[in-house]
Design a protein that fits this description.
This protein has 480 residues and is α/β, with parallel strands linked by helices. Helices cover 46% and strands 14% of the residues. The strands form 2 sheets. Strands 2-1-11-10-9-3-8-7-4-6-5 form an 11-stranded mixed β-sheet. Strands 12-13 form a two-stranded antiparallel ribbon.
Length: 480
């Protein structure tokens, strides 16, 4: 028997039903400009199916936390947990089939994106015995699957795109049905949007968004005007889980959430102009007096004191420059990178955060001299983390020559593999590999090894017991 819910009605009053079982196999895309009723639609869908299927909501604005009051969803504050804890929570959510709302409003935008990406990846990488059916709702999906690079760091963008692509493209076999909602369809990555087979298109005005919506709905370009003319709360529905022909549906009422209309009007004050003026100016001086005045600027020091301070500063700078020249600036920079590479805290930071930490250490020690740029720092950090500086120069040069064929983002884990292969270790140390790659997910490590093997820079052999042997082609001469 099919599990169906009613999401709303056509203009004629005919109910429009949603087949939840079919949705689990075909995924859903919701699009609508701000004020079109997109969040109301998602809430209706979640409320009506709450007793049928597990639900996981990625909520960047805190719009869906009220589901906890009416339907027992567990609210997880993303700001209260570390990245490993977020991943552990995701695994337990799959194991115990808990319906949750991941609330991210307390985080900055890039932190929201990284937290959601790690959370979704952990859901995806759950053990096979925990692949229970679940709806995964991602609101404001253009943030988590951007079509072009924005202001976020490149490693963050790759992380979140990988997580969202896995959810929409490969999540079905793992029981995960992605529901993505966006204000701007043109800003959503095409490979994420294209995996949805069901669509609910709300009011939108930009031509580029209407053209994308019309393409997904199989409509002619001139028919896209119908999307612009939709009223608030109406959506154009199409898909195997809803209807085989496009229909305009008015979304039904909801039980949770704010009852007041956002942006609604309210009566203006009834006070007469003179009364309103009195309210604004009464006891104004007394209220202002309660605010402590800003402290006066300090008095200017005597000119003699200023001259002496400048002279002392110049003498100190000359001494510092002399010391830096004597102790070899570049050698100290290398030592700082070595210290960071051996730090457990820096291992799981983004590349940009690692670079900023490095610059902070250099400024703290007042190191004067040319600093490595971001790319040079990442390469030196990867070399130090893999322990290549402990090898003989000829061996190190040989390994780095082979590394020229490795993608920059994957250099650190590849160097760990190459260092182990040179030492005669055929079994990969997954802890060291995870640390170099900046992840605690076994699934990501497996995908990393598969990707490196496809690139031809490693060879992986797995026996019947599951033990993996990893070799690096061309490295035999390095150990000779």
């Amino acid at each position: 028997m099919k599990a169906q819910i009613t999401i709303g009605h056509e203009a004629s009053g005919t109910p429009v039903e949603f087949d939840i079982e079919e949705l689990l196999a075909t995924r859903l895309l919701v699009q609508g400009n701000s004020g079109s009723g997109k969040s109301h639609l998602l809430r209706r869908l979640l409320e009506e199916s709450a007793q049928m299927v597990q639900q996981v909501v990625i909520d960047p604005e805190g719009d869906f936390t009220s589901l906890a009051e009416e339907f027992g969803h567990i609210v997880i504050d993303g700001a209260a947990y570390s990245p490993p804890e977020i991943e552990a929570l995701a695994r337990r959510i799959r194991e115990h089939r808990a319906s949750v709302v991941l609330a991210l409003e307390a985080l900055e935008v890039e932190q929201q994106i990284r937290c959601a990406a790690q959370f979704i990846t952990a859901l995806f990488d759950a053990p096979r015995e925990h692949w229970f059916p679940a709806l995964v709702v991602v609101d404001e999906a253009q943030m988590f699957a951007p079509s072009v690079a924005g202001e976020i760091a490149e490693d963050t963008r790759r992380m979140t795109l990988g997580a969202m692509t896995n959810l929409m493209c490969r999540g079905r076999k793992r029981g995960l049905a992605g529901i993505v909602a966006t204000q701007r369809l043109a800003k959503l990555a095409k490979n994420v949007a294209a995996e949805a087979s069901n669509f609910l298109m709300g009011r939108t005005f930009l031509d580029i968004d209407m053209v994308r919506a019309a393409d997904l709905l199989g409509m002619e370009r001139r028919q896209a005007e119908r999307i612009r003319e939709l009223e608030r709360g109406y959506f154009l529905a199409l898909g195997p889980a809803i209807t085989r022909r496009p229909v305009a549906v008015k979304i039904g009422p909801v039980k949770s959430g704010k009852k007041d209309e956002v942006g609604g009007l309210m009566p203006m004050p009834s006070e007469a102009p003179e009364d309103m003026e009195a309210l604004l100016t009464r006891d104004l001086a007394a209220e202002a007096a309660q605010t402590p005045p800003a402290p006066p600027p300090p008095a200017a020091p005597p000119i003699e004191a200023v001259e002496q301070s400048i002279a002392a500063s110049e003498d100190a700078d000359e001494v510092d420059v002399g010391l830096a020249a004597q102790t070899d600036v570049q050698a100290r920079i290398g030592e700082i990178i070595e210290e960071l590479a051996s730090s457990s805290e820096a291992a799981f930071q983004s590349a940009s955060a690692q670079y900023q930490t490095f610059l902070m250490h250099c400024r703290r020690e007042r190191i004067i001299g040319p600093m490595p740029d971001m790319q040079a720092f990442r390469r030196a950090f990867a070399i130090a983390g893999a322990g290549l500086n402990d090898l003989e120069e000829a061996t190190r040069i040989r390994i780095l020559d082979l590394a020229s064929h490795v993608e920059e983002d994957l250099l650190a884990p590849w160097l760990v593999i190459a260092r182990a292969a040179h030492a005669g270790e055929t079994e990969v140390d997954e802890d060291a590999l995870a640390r170099a790659y900046g992840t605690s997910s076994p699934g990501r490590i497996r995908r990393l090894l598969d990707h490196l093997e496809k690139q031809g820079v490693i060879v992986v052999r797995e026996d019947f017991g599951g033990a993996r042997t990893v070799m690096v082609p061309g490295l035999e001469d390095a150990s000779a």
